[in-house]
């Protein structure tokens, strides 16, 4: 948390210094750029027992405001805002303490902490309150963790005369939504197929941060974002984090 506060304070200081140089009204439109990105999240530090999906699609939209640092406008500093959505698809479920995300009691979660969040694989048979209540096998069609952040990107951008461009920056974001969604067999053994969504997750870090880079030509490019912070709070959940690799588009 202290590191997050330090990053926010640094960001505000940089912003205040930069905005002190007020551009002319005519140049404001040229300094604004709107864009969006599509990517897949490659998740790191995933527990060995969990089998994540290869493709974990995500998307973000953003606006940048640039401040030229040379007369020809090749190098500039930028700061902006955006919204990014990340997904972690797998065949497991998320639980906290002795309860899973949907309030059902687990019989033997093997916890290291009563408040810890963890991923667990669905049982081979439906078990409820310690009793096998159905002979049907459990089938998990979809299970995912979804995270949405309000992001503040900032950094430096280089634009060549040939219209190639490169960007090195940093993102600090605030988590505004975290939920899980499960589609598959009813874990209570009714034999029916269910869709369950949990909107209140414990132990999620409020902020995320990390460096990112882009390289492209004209209005299209490739990007990578390496998240340094974990999704869950330290010692209260698996320290998973995404590396987002994808494409960016800046048509405006």
What coarse outline follows from CA principal-axis ratios? elongated
What is the ordering of alpha helices and beta strands?
HHEEEEEEEEEEEEEE
* Helical content (DSSP H or I, runs of 4+): under 10%
- Average pLDDT, all residues: 83
Poorly predicted segments: 16-20
Reported for the largest beta sheet, the result is: 8 strands, antiparallel, barrel
How many beta strands in the DSSP annotation?
14
Rg (C-alpha, Å) = 22 Å
Strand content range:
over 45%
Helix tally?
2
**Separation of the first and last Cα atoms:** 36 Å
CATH domain fold name of the domain at 32-91 and 140-249: Porin
- Structural class, by secondary structure, is mainly beta
CATH class of the domain at 32-91 and 140-249: Mainly Beta
Major sheet: order of its strands? Answer: 1-2-3-9-10-12-13-14
What is the second-level CATH architecture of the domain at 32-91 and 140-249?
A: Beta Barrel
